[in-house]
Amino acid sequence: MRSPIKQDPHVAASKAVASKSGYDLKRVIIISIFGAITVVLGLIEAMIPLQSAIPGAKLGLGNIMILTCLYYLNARDALTLIALKTVLTALLLGTFSSFLFSLSGSLLSFIFMYGLLRIGRDRFSLIAISVVGGITHNIGQLGAATVVLGTSKIFYYLPFLMVTGVVTGIFVGFAARYLITRLSNLPQFEELIQS
Within a domain: residue 4? Predict the structure, then answer.
């Protein structure tokens, strides 16, 4: 009876490193693609006149990609995408105050959406997570506005922004759910769910 051939531990280690570097490269490519889509969605959103009807209200189209990134990748990757989205859209469209408001809202909504996903993907729908993200994004922006303007009276505007956060959160949640369903059929994304 032949004894099994032992594999060299160095060969096994180099295969593991190659596999990990391939996974890391895939993540970088996905973050880059998601970042580009997020910026394009931000540019499209800037052309929609929702802000003139309700000051401070936005559709949050870029959050479709943030929620999708949170679903497939880790917190660090989602924070990288948030940084890309915030910096690039501020450079293309905004001012320092819009950058500050966007960053504050994005970070607060990230904390809540990430927390809900960590508690359990099966407990909360993507739509519910998106609604929470929309509401907390608006709260974060109002918090930043309170610091910049030096008054808390701006929180009187919160009920209006909460309604828009719910409505846009539902829209973003449906869009993210549709996108995740479609991406899950691709082998590259199936691997990300399993890892």
Answer: no
Residues 79-88: contacts with CB under 8 Å, at least 24 apart: 79/110, 80/31, 81/31, 81/34, 81/35, 81/38, 82/106, 82/107, 82/110, 84/31, 84/35, 84/38, 84/39, 85/35, 85/38, 85/39, 85/42, 88/35, 88/39, 88/42
> How many whole angstroms from its chain centre is CA 37?
12
Torsional sign, CA 66, 42, 104, 54: negative
Instruction: With respect to residue 1, please indicate whether it lies within any of the assigned structural domains.
Output: no
- For 113, the domain range is 10-194
Candidates 76, 25, 37; CA nearest to 179 is 37
Among the listed residues 126, 111, 127, 114, the one whose alpha carbon sits nearest the alpha carbon of residue 166: 127
- pLDDT for position 78: 94
Distance CA 175, CA 171 (A): 6
* pLDDT tens by residue, 132-181: 999 999 999 999 989 988 988 888 888 988 999 999 999 999 999 999 99
Question: What pTM did the predictor assign?
Answer: 0.82
